[in-house]
Specification:
The complex is a heterodimer of chains A (about 150) and B (about 140). With about 150 residues, chain A is mainly α. In chain A, about 70% of the residues lie in helices and about 0% in strands. Chain A is globular. Chain B has about 140 residues and is mainly α. In chain B, about 65% of the residues lie in helices and about 0% in strands. The chains are: A mainly alpha (about 150), B mainly alpha (about 140). The interface between A and B is large, with 115 and 123 residues. Strand 1 of chain A pairs parallel with strand 1 of chain B.
Chain lengths: ~150, ~140
């Protein structure tokens, strides 16, 4: 194993902001900062379901989307991201993420941060499971399929 | 106030995702690729987020109610069941394929990358398959 691209400073600082966001959403609104659940809640009115929590959820999503723009204006540098794989793989990945997070009641934020912070057994089990299948998937894609 | 506070927290959370580079699929894949050239950054992101939320949650939940609401709403289920494990397992496969989870994908909307939109549309479709499209 060779370690490359390690960015400990920004990782620790960014992680602290993520943790602070999770704590504040609980302290202020009494809600778990689970993005898959929040996004699914915003989609609920499309199914004809009443969405009493629609407004705050949409506001949270707007905040998420605004953040890279704010970072850009604050630093003067564009936020650089790169897709690691072709669009068809992103599409299959998206389907799995959408279906899996609904079936498993959460994702990296809801289970991995908020749930583990509460020492929820369900969230700890979910986090170990998705970390394991993600690592195996990347091994297959990168090592076996050779992407 | 609940809407304003959610907007503010969304920005804070999104800045965390942006600064830690969780919104960069290539960075996520480099973290998950433990047998190759490994980038351990995201382990530190998780550890840092958990250190803050572990302490912060204890302080927040020691109060009687949230500032802008009647009660804290926490998940009520406590048993580990099949849907949880199968769902988390499928989510992990998707995370590994795309290098994106829901938070970063939503945050990256504003960066105008086609692959992000493809991922998000597929993610909405996957959610709709599980939740049901139209109940009317």
């Amino acid at each position: 194993m060779e370690i490359v691209g390690f960015t400990p400073g920004s990782a620790a600082f960014g992680g602290a902001l993520i943790g602070a966001g999770a704590v504040l959403l609980m302290a202020l609104n009494g809600r778990v900062a689970g993005v898959s659940g929040i996004v699914a809640g915003v989609l609920a009115p499309l199914r004809g379901e009443a969405g009493e929590d629609f407004a705050w959820r949409l506001a949270f999503i707007a905040g998420l989307a605004l953040a890279p723009l704010i970072a850009r204006f604050a630093t003067g540098e564009p936020v650089a991201i790169a897709a690691a794989h072709p669009a068809w793989m992103m599409a299959i990945g998206g389907l799995f993420v959408g279906y899996g997070t609904r079936l498993g009641s959460g994702c990296t934020s809801g289970h991995g941060v908020c749930g583990v912070a509460r020492l929820s057994k369900r969230s700890i089990a979910a986090t170990i499971t998705f970390m394991a299948t993600a690592i195996v998937t990347v091994f297959i894609v990168n090592r076996v399929m050779g992407f | 106030m609940r809407v304003l506070s959610a907007l503010f927290v969304g920005v804070l959370f999104g800045l965390g995702l942006t600064i830690s580079e969780m919104i960069n699929p290539a960075k996520i894949i480099a973290f998950l690729d433990v047998s190759g050239k490994w980038d351990p950054s995201l382990l530190l992101v998780m550890a840092s987020a958990l250190a803050v939320s572990f302490v912060g949650y204890r302080i927040a939940l020691s109060r009687r109610a949230p500032l802008f609401g009647a009660a804290f709403q926490l998940p009520s289920k406590s048993t580990i069941d099949r849907p949880l494990i199968i769902g988390a397992g499928l989510f992990g496969v998707g995370w590994g394929l795309a290098g994106l989870c829901p938070g970063p994908a939503v945050s990256a909307i504003s960066l105008g990358k086609v692959e992000i939109y493809v991922f998000l549309i597929a993610m909405f479709a996957g959610m709709a398959v599980k939740d049901g499209l139209a109940r009317r």
